[in-house]
Amino acid sequence: MNEKDAIDLLIRSGCSPDVIEHCKAVADYARKIAMNIRDNAKRKGQPIQIDVDTVFAGALLHDIGRSKTHGIGHAVAGARIAVENGLDEKLIKIIERHIGAGIPEKETKGLGLPEKDYMPVTIEEKIVAHADNLTFGKEIGTMDELILNLRKKMMDERVIKRFTVLNNEINSMMV
Prior knowledge:
- The protein is mostly helical.
- It contains eight helices and two strands; from the N terminus they run ααααααββαα.
- It has helices spanning 3-13, 17-43, 52-61, 74-84, 89-97, 123-133, 143-152, 157-174; strands at 135-136, 139-140.
């Protein structure tokens, strides 16, 4: 899916201009991360398979569910919209698994989500989740800012640890 088609779908689905601008910022940042990882691996002679186009399209669409709700269920609503529009399974999974640094099935019950695993699995899913975590509106922030925000929201330390583990995994591929 190209950028124009993804933005048209966000608009048709009812996403606000602010959500669309956030999605564009996440997509640009995610593409940068993906290209950095790919190029770094190539330099080291360890080519890694990253579908940069899927990362970009998935990041553009990651918050499509915010056209229905701004709660944590936006990932499930977004995946449903993606299915209804016949999107590729890779994009559906990126949309569904981008929330936070992932949510394991055992933690979904109290969150009002269907009981299943929402942990990002593929490198593309992880890159989009990470880029989203560090994008505040249209601005790219730092891991320190993210952790501070999570602590202000009284997030459980095991949740904060998932953000840190994902950050470390992504960063280790970029150096």
